[in-house]
Protein 1
Amino acid sequence: MPPLTVAVIAFVALVVVFTTVWVWQVKSKNAGMIDPVWAMSLGVVALLIAVLGQGDLHTRVIVGIGGFVWGTRLGVHLWKRNAAHPEDPRYHKFREQWAADANKKMFWFFQLQVVISMLLSLAFFVPAYRTTPPGAAWVALAAVIWVISIAGEALADHQLLMFKADPSNRGKVCRAGLWRYSRHPNYFFECVHWVAYIPLAIGVGGWIVAMLLPPVLMAWLLMKVSGVPMVEAESAKKRPGYADYMRTTSALIPWPPRHP
């Protein structure tokens, strides 16, 4: 199918998905499930683009598998973290601020995820519609970046999960493993994931510029909007040692900690 047709199908499907989740949160008063649904639905969009795209078959297979595995792993992790738990403090804060308008504003917040997902899906669209296969070296580079990003994010998630599972760590700051070198190693590897598809688009002309949008957008959202600012504001209030952690540890890129 032409890319515009596939984009319309993906857009409509995402609107239906996020509207359904919005209805669910109206009843449950818990908007936290938007996170796993976002990851899983975007993984399915990658698969949809791979199946319906008209570009090189091998490239489409790589894009479909890469996006779907990423979305499934992250979605399952977030589902386990959020399901049957109190609402994420970020969304609870929105609910309190919006008061009587919470459900209406939450609806548009959920629909904003559709727009963000469509912009991120450029990482899948551009390579999936290239007519010739990328060079073997570019495919290898894409695979290496993808593996590093998925493995790194999974490791960071696991290390934090294990830290929180130990009752003796309650109220403490996690400095285990990757968290010693970055305050948000999971966010770092999430940004790296969106870089992985760029080598697959080398040689497609001006469209390669569009491939820069997904990693830049993800980094901006995590560092300036819904990620670091909200998470750290909450952590600074709950964990006495977090201010020192912020002074000595890189915010995103893993780096040896500074001496206090």
Protein 2
Amino acid sequence: MRMMKHCWLAMAVVLLAAGCASMGSKDDKLREAQYAWSAAIRWGDFEGAWNLVEPEYRKAHPMTPVEFERYKHVGISRYHDLGEQALAGGDVAREIDLGVINKHTMTERGMRYTERWHYDEEAKTWWQMSGLPDLWQGE
């Protein structure tokens, strides 16, 4: 009986430790969010990436189906993180170098853009604050 009690106690400790480890630090959560964002961009899942944009930004800058359709005409050949910088208030800015391929002409061009990340204490998640990259640079 005593052995069974110790077994249950040991199992509870292991489960508690695993649960704490899975919560992850704020930095770990940032890396996970940035990885999910970069994967969505690299694979052309711009609608998926849009879901990682801060909800208030999405509400203030809604994307139309035509705008999403425009992203289907390009491919991403590279996504390089050139470095990041801590900003006031705990936000993080990350400079990105992209290779953008026009699927119709098969021409590639490079561009840079800056991602801004903000931690939402209430939701316990990081949000991308600058929206989808403007692959046409205002054109």
Protein 3
Amino acid sequence: MAQGLDAIDRRILGELQADASQSLDTIAEKVGSSKTPVWNRIRKMREAGVIGPQTVIVDAEKLGFDACFFVLVRTSEHEADWQAAFLRALKARPEVMEAHRLAGEIDYILKVRVKNARAYDAFYQALISEVKIFNVTALLSMEEIKFTTALPL
């Protein structure tokens, strides 16, 4: 559907990315349309999977999750069974905020949010007890310089 999006759809998406709690009336006014067409466009984008579930962005540090680690994983295992076990382990760990399979020397990168270094060690120990990993490197983020969930439309 990406090719089927017009300028109004993109402006609607921009508004929703900025603040999904805005009323339909507010969004319609900002994009130069009326409420019903905006609602219909949003509904169609939801049905097409362009818009996923609505969530809330929570401030991790205000809830005591002060440590953000980027975990680089190298494995010597590339069989389907290992990958399935690794995926299950990641999905079961709420500390894993993001996980990406990479091209290059590093096989996976994980974004892990925990309260402190001890909590990271508990996460690490649990992970390596569930799946065999060749090498793990953990990088502590000292400062989040930029964070956004908005795509450049």
